[in-house]
């Protein structure tokens, strides 16, 4: 019997990893996860580690284009562990059509079947910025989905949320789920019903050149105020920042830093590794990754330095 695959897509920072985390925690099935980060440092895989016996991180590109071969190899690897289901998290800049193409490869025909494509949509962001839905990448992701999962609805302006629901219902004829209100849509996942999939519209949105990722890692700690100021400065040109940050003023393991748009904060980390690992993603046109790297390098307090910045 082939193993069902759930493909989770959605824009940068929409809430894909959080959704998959909840899915793995539900313990519903023995689920293996393949997680694709656009940046070279695979933060998402580190967040999910320990939640499943099998978490494979694929970084530095997109499984919809440059990493299609890696996706095939990873599927073969996780299949060897005989999972009951596989969940694939696409990078936030992926067009799902390239991934569906890989999953249709004849070498996988007897092994896996694509059960559902979910697109996680940041309801707060969309309610505040309806023009986001005009972005061709957003449209490719939502347009390929069987189900839309609305995240952050509790943070969304209610009138904007109502407009968003109407737009999704009218434009895409999709069922949307509000995870904050209704919990995980487990009833539609893992049904074991084999339904033929209608072909997706042709074409592909190629976004790899549109976005630039800065991958930065260093042993040592960052000063809280200096790091916060830097992120405030960069926020207007960044879509996404995430990673593990060891803070000088907070001894102990690194904290998980998350920034989506202008919303930023520290969460309790799951990393047992020391030092800092950060991925910053912006549009190639506006984000100067070299300048950002230089500012991080100037801030880091290496373990052997005594003076505080
Ligand atoms: N309040 C709230 N916050 C959420 C929800 N979903 C995600 N977040 C927060 O949004 C931020 C981004 O969430 P992720 O799950 O990492 O988003 P992602 O789509 O995996 O991000 P990328 O893989 O980087 O594209 C994190 O700070 C999450 O805690 C939600 O439903 N409600």
From TrEMBL:
Catalytic activity as recorded in UniProt: GTP + H2O = GDP + phosphate + H(+)
Domain CobW C-terminal: 211-300
Alphabetically ordered keywords of this record: Chaperone, Hydrolase, Nucleotide-binding
InterPro entries referenced in this protein's UniProt entry, alphabetically: CobW-likC_sf (IPR036627), CobW-like_C (IPR011629), CobW/HypB/UreG_nucleotide-bd (IPR003495), P-loop_NTPase (IPR027417), Zinc-reg_GTPase_activator (IPR051316)
Keyword Nucleotide-binding: yes
Top-level taxon of origin: Bacteria
Keyword Heme: no
GO cellular component term, pick one: cytoplasm
UniProt signal peptide: none
CDD domains, A to Z: CobW-like
A Pfam family of this chain: CobW_C
One example GO MF annotation: nucleotide binding
Protein family according to the UniProt entry: Belongs to the SIMIBI class G3E GTPase family. ZNG1 subfamily.
Function comment: Zinc chaperone that directly transfers zinc cofactor to target proteins, thereby activating them. Zinc is transferred from the CXCC motif in the GTPase domain to the zinc binding site in target proteins in a process requiring GTP hydrolysis.
Protein name as it appears in the record: GTP-binding protein
Upper classification of the organism: Bacteria, Pseudomonadati, Pseudomonadota, Alphaproteobacteria, Rhodobacterales
């Amino acid at each position: 019997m082939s193993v069902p695959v759930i493909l989770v897509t959605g824009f940068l920072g929409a809430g894909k990893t959080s959704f998959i985390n909840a899915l793995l925690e539900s313990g519903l099935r023995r689920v293996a996860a393949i997680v694709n980060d656009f940046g070279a440092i695979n933060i998402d895989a580190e967040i999910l580690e320990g939640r499943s016996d099998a978490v494979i991180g694929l970084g530095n590109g997109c499984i919809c284009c440059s990493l299609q071969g890696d996706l095939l190899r990873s599927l073969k690897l996780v299949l060897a562990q005989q999972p009951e289901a596989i969940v694939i998290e696409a990078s936030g800049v992926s067009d799902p059509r390239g991934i569906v193409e890989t999953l249709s490869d004849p070498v996988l025909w007897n092994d896996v079947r694509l059960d559902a494509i979910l697109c996680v949509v940041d309801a707060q962001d969309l309610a505040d910025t309806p023009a986001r839905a005009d972005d061709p990448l957003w449209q490719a992701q939502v347009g390929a989905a069987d189900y839309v999962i609305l995240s952050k609805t509790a943070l969304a302006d209610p009138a904007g949320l109502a407009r968003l629901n109407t737009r999704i219902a009218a434009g895409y004829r999709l069922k949307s789920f509000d995870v904050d209100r209704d919990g995980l849509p487990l009833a539609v996942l893992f049904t074991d019903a084999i339904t033929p999939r209608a072909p997706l519209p042709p074409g592909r949105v190629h976004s790899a050149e549109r976005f630039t990722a800065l991958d930065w890692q260093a042993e040592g700690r960052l000063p809280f105020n200096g790091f916060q100021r830097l992120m405030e400065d960069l926020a207007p040109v960044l879509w996404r920042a995430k990673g593990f940050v060891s803070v000088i003023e907070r001894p102990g393991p690194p904290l998980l830093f998350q920034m989506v748009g202008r919303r930023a904060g520290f969460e309790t980390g799951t990393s047992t590794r020391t030092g800092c690992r950060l991925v910053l993603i912006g549009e190639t046109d506006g984000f100067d990754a070299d300048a950002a790297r230089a500012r991080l390098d100037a801030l880091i307090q290496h373990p052997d330095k005594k003076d505080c910045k």
